[in-house]
Amino acid sequence: MNKVIMITGANTGIGKDTARQLALKSETTKIYLACRNKAKAEIAKKDLEKITGRKIFEIIILDVSDTDSVRKAVRNLKEPIDAIILNAGGVGGKTPRALTKDGVTTITAINLLGHVVLVNELLDANKLRNTVLFASSEAARGIKKTGMKRPDLKTSSIEEFRNVFNGQYFGSDFDALQVYGVIKYGGTLWMSSMARKYPHIKFLSISPGGTRGTEGFDSLPFLQKIMFKYIGMPIFMPLMGLSHSLPKGAKRFVDGINNPNLESGGFYASKENVLTGPIIDQSVIFQDLKNEQYQDNAYEAIQSFA
Hints:
By secondary structure, the protein is α/β, with parallel strands linked by helices. The protein has a single domain, classed as NAD(P)-binding Rossmann-like Domain (Rossmann fold, 3-Layer(aba) Sandwich). It contains 9 helices and 8 strands. The protein has an 8-stranded mixed beta sheet, sandwiched between helices. Helix 1 (13-23) runs parallel beside helix 2 (38-52) and helix 4 packs parallel to helix 6 (176-197). The protein is globular and about 50 Å long. The two termini are 30 Å apart. The mean pLDDT is 92.
């Protein structure tokens, strides 16, 4: 049973509602809100306490785009946690292709590298007991209806994955939405490799689906932002089975961390032509997800930056 849980990106959107839903479960005894902005985290904490009637929230300052911040956060963690939900992410702000001091693109840092370092540090410090949940995306296997292409790497070698993470793979064609899907694919493979390396910990990749009310589109170019956030997501996409409410997206995480029927190393998301409804094993849609060599290559590539 997961009683003490950490959530990255917990002050808003899916992360905050995941915290709310978990707090309503009597077995949850503490929730660490891992956030980069202290002021926003304090506002979220007070709001969550008011909504849930429980004072079980604790703030930990952690910026997934800064690996030094991640390591400091783990050092400051007072106790082991049962589960961690790696929720923070997005399309990389205004400079998704900019390289961090670790040599990866910003979009890689916030979606993947920061979380890789976080899990590594927790394991090394014996501060993680049961479960790791990575917020993946159906974009990791392609979404035809939205024009997001399936990742199509030529060799899926360690070097090719390194070039994905440092941006060289994309050349001059760096479309943040498409890149986002390939990064999530690499992260999902990393999780599957971790599941085999650490069999005493359950590693799950779960997509929240097409969730309305998130901030993921805020940093897109103006026209793309208007199309996705204010027209597509709330109006047209629900009719096509491509978006659902924020609580439904967060519920996938809440249910997932304690679901014994989900296998460690698996990637669970919507059926092929929708982004809503029940979750299924995504390897039946995209066979490459089951390739252990690809998994280990993605693992080695991202760990080389950690």
